[in-house]
Amino acid sequence: MGLLAGRVAVVTGAAQGIGFAIAETFVREGARVVVGDLNPGEVQEKLGSEVTRAVKCDVTRAEDVQALLDTALTEFGALDVMVNNAGITRDATMRKMSEDDFDQVIAVHLKGTWHGTRTASAHMRESGGGSIVNISSLSGKVGMPGQTNYSAAKAGIIGLTKAAAKETARYGIRVNAIQPGLIRSPMTTAMPQHVWDQKMNEIPMSRAGEPEEVAKVALFLASDLSSYMTGTTLEVTGGRFM
Q1: How high is the mean pLDDT of the chain?
Q2: Which GO molecular function annotation, any one, does this entry have (predicted)?
Q3: Would the pLDDT of 62 be above 90?
Q4: Is 232 left (phi over 0), alpha (psi -120 to 50) or beta?
Q5: ∠ CA(179), CA(155), CA(105), 5° rounding?
Q6: What is the arithmetic mean of pLDDT over 148-158?
Q7: Is 0.70 topped by the overall pTM?
Q8: SS3 29
Q9: Which residues are catalytic?
Q10: DSSP 3-state percent helix, strand, coil across the chain (nearest 5)
């Protein structure tokens, strides 16, 4: 019996990277998982079509998020866990960043997380509770040059998480967040070598994290292991900027 045996989870932005690692970990721990992504690709086949559904979803659209959660309810009969992970980057210095690049990042990260938290909590309130896990970033704690849009969105997710946790705790709903640091992925390994080396020098553990290491923390927050935790933010950073 896994930590999520018999439970149903929804994970956005789960076709690759951290989101895929979370979905894969949840399936391994006994959950049935609905994956939402703009390009779901073959994720359903990779995770197992008997326990997974993949749905095309734009998290900036309330109707898409509602359809994603409706899939969990119609296909698997429940919604116990919601992970708001979908994200994009449009990095540029503030002087060079376009208004559209700012708006897109805020919409996907912050508004998308609001849609997911709002829609999932509405159902969980009626069903007796659940766990919502929001993926923020270390950039939301310290602010990163070239990321006024991303840092603002990720900081906003922390405030949203705390406010939502206070509103929903009485209904048995827990809302927590994770702030990953430098996690090895196609996006981060494509950095120029000097940028990678600078970031590595800031990490006391002297290595980048792996997507699975974030997924394990998401599993902890999704499961009963964290039953007395809400409104918290857990850093998965190797000690960077502690």
Answers
A1: 97
A2: 3-oxoacyl-[acyl-carrier-protein] reductase (NADPH) activity
A3: yes
A4: beta
A5: 100
A6: 98
A7: yes
A8: coil
A9: 150
A10: 50, 15, 35
